Structure formats: structure tokens, C-alpha cells
Amino acid sequence: MSRRSISIRELAAAAGVSVGTASRALKHQQGLSAETRDRVLQLAAELGYDTGRLKQEPVRRILVLLHSQHPADSPFYAALLDGARDRCAKDGVEMQVRSLGPGRPVRRQVLECEPDALLCVGFFEPELIHAIARLGKPLALADLWAPGLAAVNPDNRQGAYLATQHLLANGRKRIAFLSGPLAHYSIRLRERGYRQALFDAGRLADPSLEALIAPGLDVATGAAQAMRELLALPVPPDAVFAYNDTAALVALQVCRDTGLRVPDDIAVAGFDDIAGAAGAGLTTLAVDKAALGRAGIELLLNQADEGNRLQPVSLIVRTTTASTPE
């Protein structure tokens, strides 16, 4: 005689958790400790819970979260959000965008929107990601990475490698890296790509050529200050690779204001290929920002497991590094 399959309510009671927590554990969703998930799964096996009864709830409402330091109308994130909206519209999924501020509890800011799933875009502090994951909603990341979560990112390291390699191939000897805060996942990887290209070319990274935008400064002010410090070195750089196009465009203007000829005296390259890069003739790495947004939504709609999917980037050579652009 076969044993009766217990209900999910009975399983939850045996595990000492809520029905929702038991359901998330059985579906291997984020937001639970490994101990809680393992306890529920072990009891499910011991007590004969029929996992075939599980149903994946359809995602009908997605909340896209941005850190308060990232304006939604910035050139990079506006294009990413457009891609996410297009993908949601394809399946009739409602999408909201919210900027998480420090003044109110994360739980209240998120749950008052009643989302089925969450997409975090861009930089978030690890503790903030942890608080969001604990809400128990399906969660994915775009332009960000955290252990145990599904994520999609541009190939930041390879892109920075290509840009630095290009500058080296053009005979540049002192290549500076103009960096933003290294707490950002994408910036850390761009720094690694820059360093790896120097290493592979037999060059030692010169610490004096790594300029960091001072904490608390906006990109325009901080990049200008950092670029002026680089140009004031006893032996200034003959090229600068900036962590993004916004910083690169500021650096480009500082060079020209100083009377330097670009690219004869100094070459400048950026990353992201934002709208203003082409008009300025800026060499950069093209990121398909709309595709990045679409891919983030796909992770949620397909209930993707953890892992980091990389989107390819491509080097676009323009007049800031070559008198005859490719």
C-alpha cells in the first residue's frame, strides 16, 4: 500500500517554516539560508512529499531596482531599462522602476509595489543585496554580480583588455587608468583587464598612473580632478583608459583645455559607447545596453539558476586614439 503524499502545509509545519518558505525551498529560489533549504528538502524526501505537485507561479509584475546613486535617465541605464521594458511588453509583463533610497526600510520600499520578481541593476552594496534576497522573491542581477544569484554582465574584463591592448599596439608607453569606485563589480573587472593587458605585454603597472575619482564627488568633478593630477605628474601619461565614457569625455575636455593634441600628444579611450561618444570621436567598448536589459528580464521569466552570463563587447576605434579610425 503506497504512502499518502503529505501536503505542503504539513511539510512546512514539520520544518517549522511558513508555507511560502517551504515552497521557495522546494523550487530552489533565492532568499533562504542553505540550512533552511536543506532542512525542507530533507524532510520532503523523508515524509514523501510529491514534488510533481509544485507549480511555478507565472511572473506578471517585475520591479527593477536601481541604487539611488544611479539616475534612471543616465545614458547607460536609460538604454538598459528600455530593453527591459521591451522584453516585458513582449509577454505582457508589467514593469516598474524604483530607486532604492537610504531613508526607508528596503522591505517596505519593495513590497509596497507587490512585485512577483525583482531585477537589481547596477551597483548595490552587498548588505543591500542580501536584504533584498531575504524578501524571498525571484531575483536576478544585471550589470552586477553576487554569489548564489543569476546575473548578466557585459564582458568587462575582456573589454578593458582590448582597449589597453589597442593603446599598446599604437605605441603608447604610459597608459593611465582613470577609475571610479572599485567597490563596483564592473569597475573592478575593468581594472583587472587593464592590468592583464599590461602584464601580457611585459609592462609593469605604474601605481602613479592609476587615478581614482575621489569618494563623494560626482563623475564630472571627480574625473576632471583626477585627470589634472595625471597631467601634473613629472612624466605624464601618453594615453588614458577611463572606466566609462562619461569619465572619458571629461578627461578628453581637460586634455584639450590644457592645450594637448588628441591623439598626437595623448590618446583617450572609454567604455560603454553612450550616445555622446560617437559625436566626440571617442574610442570605446560598445555594450549592447538594451540587450543587457532584455537578458536580465529573461533570467526572471525563465527562473534561471545562479550563474553569471557574459555579453560580448566590441572595440570601436575612433579619432581619440587613431588619426585614421577603423
UniProtKB/TrEMBL annotation:
What the entry lists under InterPro entries is as follows:
HTH_LacI (IPR000843), LacI/GalR-like_sensor (IPR046335), Lambda_DNA-bd_dom_sf (IPR010982), Peripla_BP_I (IPR028082)
Coiled coil ranges: none
SUPFAM superfamilies, sorted: lambda repressor-like DNA-binding domains, Periplasmic binding protein-like I
Keywords per UniProt: DNA-binding, Transcription, Transcription regulation
Q: Which residues form the HTH lacI-type domain?
A: 6-49
Q: Which Pfam families match?
A: LacI, Peripla_BP_3
Q: What is this protein called?
A: LacI family transcriptional regulator
Q: In the UniProt record, what gene is named as encoding this protein?
A: rbsR
